[in-house]
Amino acid sequence: MLGVFVLMIAVPTVATERASAKFVFTHFNTDNSAGIQSNLYIFVLGLLMSQYTLTGYDASAHMTEETKNADRNGPIGIISAIGISIVVGWGYILGITFAVKDIPYLLSPDNEAGGYAIAEVFYLAFKSRYGSGVGGIVCLGIVAVAIYFCGMSSVTSNSRMAYAFSRDGAMPLSSVWHKVNKHEVPINAVWLSAFISLCMALPSLGSLVAFQAMVSIATIGLYIAYALPIFFRVTLARKYFVPGPFNLGRYGVAVGWVAVLWVVTITVLFSLPVTYPVTKDTLNYTPVAVGGLFILVLTSWVVSARHWFRGPVTNLGG
User: Fold this and answer.
1) What do the Gene Ontology cellular component annotations say (predicted)?
2) Fewest CB within 10 angstroms: 3, 43, 101, 203, which?
3) Any alpha helices (H) in the chain, and if so which ranges?
């Protein structure tokens, strides 16, 4: 959090040339190598990045067994994560954007950062002021630390999910993954999550397309997973759903429908091509990847899991 505030203040302050407010709030980068000139299309694609950034707030739900007063603090954690991300993220984007002047150059593979736009913004801001881009490299280090903590949070959340599924007997070798150590941490599930994360990251070294397909599955898969219980809450369970102590009252159903429709919308948007003309190298394989995963999961349920899986196992007495 501190690093984000440092970046949103330091970068535009250090930069000797700053963009105008008109440029920041009204300019669309139609001069791009993606072959996209439509302002609306550019806006839609930009919207997807914020959707990707906001994922992960379900970690509060996965950590409820280790949370005091989880029935209230869990939802508060989710709402807080979204609210803080919106406010701080908006400020960070504004700070960076005011330091941007030449977008095509930032995206050029021939610049000092090899086309990595954010790194180039940091580098140019400090080089223009001090004649050296070392400060920009330090800023990039702050980003690296933030990414590390994001990874740690993801592994923590995922390991608790693996623990819950294995406790319910829904994973291969469930007896191994739901064991906890003396600190009451599902250590085997943590190592499993770290190992799988490493394996999923390795393809990026050889095939960016394969890595992007996995990222797409993760993003859309998460939002579909978020939307499904909401959908069933506002349809099948509408009459007999028992709200917890933290709820939206009479607005719950309306907000639920808005959430479901929004997920449907962004799922379609995530499937749109991001580069034209569309070829085998530029095709957005997200629908194929997500559809393939859906078929595998559905087949597994029909053929096997429905015969033995009985749902979550309660660990509460009485």
Assistant:
1) membrane
2) 43
3) 2-14, 21-26, 39-54, 59-62, 70-97, 103-107, 117-130, 134-167, 174-177, 187-201, 208-234, 252-270, 286-300, 306-308
Instruction: Specify the 3-state DSSP secondary structure of 256.
Output: helix
DSSP character at residue 251: G
Confidence band for 29, pLDDT divided at 50, 70 and 90: confident
Residue 291 lies in a domain: yes
- CA dist 245 and 40 (Å) reads 41
CA distance 79 to 93: 21
> ω before 245 within 30° of 0 (cis)?
no
For residues 2-27, give the mean pLDDT: 88
Segments forming the whole domain that contains residue 282: 207-307
Residue 241 confidence (pLDDT) above 50: yes
Indicate if the pLDDT at residue 207 is higher than 80.
Answer: no
What total number of domains does the chain contain? 1
Q: 0.85 exceeded by the pTM?
A: no
